[in-house]
Amino acid sequence: MKTIFTDITTMDEYGNAHTHRYVVVDGDKIAGIFDARPAGRFDREISGKNKLLMPALYNCHAHTAMTLFRGYGEDLPLQAWLNTRIFPAEDLLTSEAVYNASMLAAAEMLRNGIVSFSDMYFFSEDTIRAVAETGMKANIARCITCFNPDETKDTDARLIEALALHKQYHNSFGGRIKMDMSVHAEYTTLPHAVKYVAEAAKELGLHMHVHMSETESEHNECMERNGGKTPAQHFAELGVFDVPTIAAHCVWVSDEDIALMAEKGVFAVHNPVSNLKLGSGIMPLLKMHRAGVNVVLGTDGAASNNRLDILREMNVAAMLEKGRDRVCDAMKAADIIPMATVNGAKAQGRADCGSLACGKKADLIMLDMDTPNNIPSYEPVTSVIYSATSADVCMTMVDGKILYENGEYKTLDIESVKHRMRDTVAHYFDKK
User: Fold this and answer.
1) Structural domains of the chain sorted by starting position, each given as residue range(s) with its CATH number in brackets
2) What are 313-360's pLDDT values in tens digits?
3) What is the pTM of this model?
C-alpha cells in the first residue's frame, strides 16, 4: 500500500513544523517527505488541507484493563483507593474481563492518537490478544509481586509465567508486541525477588517496568525499611537499573535520585493527571529535564485517570511546570513533544519508531486544525500543546495501516466492544 498526504503541515518529534509538504508512506515506512508533489502512482491520496501530520503518541505507563474500573473508586488517596476498592475488585478479574477491557482501552487509545503503550498488569495474554487484533503496538509486562521470603526464581509462579510469555510473544506480530519484565513496586516486592527478576531481565535483554516514589509515604517508608535508601537507590542496588527501565511516577524523588536516574538512563514516566487526581503530588519535571533524565508520558490506568489521553497529559504537564515554579518559559511547548513521541519509542526499545523521518515506521496521526479551538494557529507546536484535544485526531496510522479515521475503526467493531464491556461490568462487579 502506497499512500501520499498532499499539501499538509508536518510537525516532527521536536516540534519543528513545515507547511505545504507531501509525505509518502510505502508499506510500513515513511518513504519520503517533499516540498513538492513527487512523481509516481499512489494507492491512496489524503488531502492535507487544514490538517497537521505528526508522529503518533506513546503511553508509557498503563494498566490497560483497568478501563473496567473507570469511576469505580473516586475521590480517594492512593492507599485507600487500592485497598478498599481496586485490590478487592481485581480479585474478581477473569480472562474474559481483561480481554474486553483491553479492547475498550485499545479503541480509546487509537481514537486519541496513541499507537503504543507499556502495560503492567495480569492476564497478559488477553491484553496481547487485544493488541494483536487491533493492530496496535505494546510492551507487555506481567506484573510481579512477592511477599514470601522463601520464594525463589524457580518457584515464583509469576516469574515463571512472565518467562513463558517472553518465550511465546516477544517480538511477535511483526515486532508489534514486546515483552518487558516488571516488579510492581518496592513495597509489594521483597528485595530478593526484585533481584532475581532484574537478573532475568538482564539475561534475556529485556526492559524493566516499575512503580517508583509515587507517594510521599511510599518513598519515606522505603527509606525506613532499607537503611535510608530511597526506592531509586534500592532498585539500583538490586540491579534493576542495569537494564533499560521505565520508572512510573517519580513524584517524590530526591536530587540524588534524579542524578542517579540520569546516570543510569532510566526513563521517568510522568503521569500528571493520575498523580493529581490521587493527590500524590507533582513530578519535578523541570529538574529532570535539566539533569538530562529521559522523561516520557503515561496515563496510568483509567481507574485513576478516567481517560487514556496523552494529548491531555501533554497539556497538563506543560501547565503544571508553569504554575508550580511561576516561570512560564522554563519548559516550552517544544520540550513536551519528544516526551510523547520519540522518547516514548526509545523507552519501549523501538528505535525505528517515534519520528517523522524517512525510513522510520509510519506511525502517524493527523489532527484537524480547522476546528474552533485550533483557529488561528500561529505555531503548530503551541497549538498541539495548548489548543488541541483528542477530539481533533482524525486519523491514526500504525506501520502504514490506518486503524482509525474520522470516527471509523478499521480493525474492531466498536459497538460490539462497548456491548461486551457493559455486559462484563454487569456480571462481574458490584457497584453499590
Assistant:
1) 2-55+361-409 (2.30.40.10), 57-347 (3.20.20.140)
2) 999 999 998 998 888 888 899 999 999 999 999 999 999 999 999 999
3) 0.97
